Amino acid sequence: MNRTLLRRSVIGVFLAAGLVGSALAQASTQSSGAGSRTLATFTSGPDNITGLPCPNLDANTGLPKPGTVCIGTGDGPQVYKGPLHGSSHYTYGWAINSRGQFEAEFAESFHGRVEGCGSGRLVFRSTSLTEPDLSFVGHWEIVPGFGGGELRNASGHGTFEGRIRADGTATGQTKGRITC
Question: How many folded domains does the chain comprise?
């Protein structure tokens, strides 16, 4: 596989990891004064990358040339285990710069159970930054007005971190707070 194709595969992996992080936005119930806690571990991807319109790649690195930013979209599945337990599907837009950093913004639909709240549906909004070493960090929040079932009035926010694996999937953990 040439370097450009390898880099494009890595781009897909980066995106999957960032997406996974956004799905981790779910959390368990805590009182409004409680601090952040680990809500779940997660596994996501591999993602379906629906665009990589980047004609200005460096032939040696496979990354965008300096001054160039490439953009695209993607989607994928995620599974949560812990006080936040269930599955989700996410969609996202992403950009990669000449340093190999990927930034992504996600919308995620979660179906499952939140300990202390019950079962239902939540929608998360998140952002992530994936570094060239395939580690990622991000922030998430529950989108008000889109919950269902026993989670219809849930609110919350937090952070996530993880790593993209060689097979294009990602693993990590999410921290934060969900109030019902």
Answer: 1
Lowest mean pLDDT across 14-28, 42-56, 81-95 = 14-28
57: domain CATH number? 2.40.350.10
pLDDT computed for residue 123 by the predictor: 98
* Separation CA 112–CA 77 (nearest Å): 14
pLDDT digits (tens, 9 = 90+) for 64-83: 888 888 889 999 999 999 99
Q: What is the DSSP string of 84-114?
A: EEEEEEEEEEEEE-TTS-EEEEEEEEEEEEE
Output 21 or 178, whichever has higher pLDDT: 178
117 phi, psi to nearest 5 deg = -115, -40
Q: Which domain holds residue 65?
A: 3-179
- Closest alpha carbon to 2 in 69, 57, 53: 57
Backbone φ and ψ for 154, nearest 5 degrees, come out as: -65, 145
